[in-house]
Amino acid sequence: MVYLLIIRFPPHIFDCYCCRFAILGKDHRRTRVANAYFSLFMAVGNVLGFATGSYSGWYKILPFTMTDACDVDCANLKSAFFLDIIFIAITTYLSVLAAKEVPLGSRDRSTPFLEEGLEGGQAEEAFLWELFGTFRYFSAPIWIVLSVTALNWIGWFPFLLFDTDWMGREIYGGQPNEGDNYNSGVRMGAFGLMLNSVVLGITSVLMEKLCSKWGAGFIWGVSNILMALCFLAMLVLSYVANHLDYIGHGLPPIGIVIGALVIFSFLGIPLAITYSVPYALISSRIESLGLGQGLSMGVLNLAIVIPQVVVSLGSGPWDQLFGGGNSPAFAVAGVAALTGGLVAILAIPRSSSQKPRLVLP
C-alpha cells in the first residue's frame, strides 16, 4: 500500500507562499485572506487525494495498470501516479495562465544587507550568503516566530510520516506485507486523513474571524496545545489497543477505530492554522526591515526544513530505542507542540483588531 503514503504526504507548500506574497504585495489583510483560501483549496485537494487513497479498486477503473508483473497494490500505485500526472499538468497550466507576475528586475530590490555587501549582478550569485546574512537584522519577535515554527513542525512531521502506519500497526495490529490487517488499517488511515481535510477546510473559512478577534499568535498557540492533546490521545489509544486481546486475532473494536478517526479529524484544526498563520505573522514583521518577501520566506522555510531533516533521521532510531512502534515519535511531537503553543501564547504579542476604549478625563 505504498501508494497511500505517496499521495497523502503533503507537498512542500513553502514556495507557494513565496509566490503568493509576490502577487499580493504588502497588503496584510489580503495576505491573511489569501492564507485562508490557500488552506481551503488545499483541503479540497486533500479530501480528493485521501479519498483516492482509501479506495483500493483503482485497478478496476484503469485495468491496463494490472499486468502479470504488477499485482493489485502495484496497479493501484500506478493508477495513483497517472492521476497525479493528469492533475499536476492541469493545475500547472492553469497557474501559469492565470498568474500575472511582475519581473523581479523591475522592482527595487535594495535591502540593508544588499546595500552593505552586494552590488549589481553579484546579488543573485550570493543568494545563500544573503539568506544567512539576514539573521542579524531579525528582531526578537521574528526569532520567536521562527522558534515556534520549528517546534510546530517537529510536532507535525512524525504525524505526517507515520499516521497511516500508526493506524495499520498500532490500531489494526498488522505488519506490512503480513496479512490484511495492516492494509485495512492504512486504508482507514487515509479515510481519517480525508476527514482531517474536511475539518481543515472548515477551519480555513473561519480563520480570518478567529485571528481578528483573538490574535493570530494566540490562535496559533491554542492550536499547538490542541495538537499536543491529540498526540496524547493517540498514545492513550495505542496503550488501550495493545492491552486488548484482538491484536493478532482480528479487527479492532469499532470504538477504537472511531476514536482514531476523531483524533485525525480534530488535527485538521491546527493543521489549517499551521498552513497560514506563521506566514502571515512573519510577513507582518519583516516589512519594517526592508527585506524582500522571498528572502524572508526562505529564512522561515529553514525553520521548517531543519526539523523535517531532524525528524526524518532521528525518529526511526528513537522509536527502536523504546522497542519500536510510532508512540515514541508521537511523544516527542506532543512535547514539541505543547512547548511551541506555550511560547506562542506567552511571547507573541496579541494583535487582535479590537475597538479602542474611550478614556474619559
Can you tell me about this structure?
41% of the residues are buried. It contains 16 helices and no strands. It starts with a helix and ends in a 14-residue tail after the last helix. It has a single domain, classed as MFS general substrate transporter like domains (Growth Hormone, Chain: A, Up-down Bundle), CATH 1.20.1250. Helix 1 (2-8) packs parallel to helix 5 (72-98), helix 3 packs antiparallel against helix 10 (181-214) and helix 3 packs antiparallel against helix 14. By secondary structure, the protein is mostly helical.
Rg, Å, rounded:
22 Å
Globally, the shape reads globular
Q: How can the largest sheet be summarized?
A: none
- Taken in chain order, the helices and strands follow as HHHHHHHHHHHHHHHH
Protein name: Major facilitator superfamily (MFS) profile domain-containing protein
Pathway: Glycan biosynthesis; sucrose metabolism
Main location: membrane
Membrane topology: Multi-pass membrane protein
Brief characterization of the structure:
It is found in: Membrane. One of its GO terms (molecular function) is sucrose:proton symporter activity. With 361 residues, this protein is mostly helical.
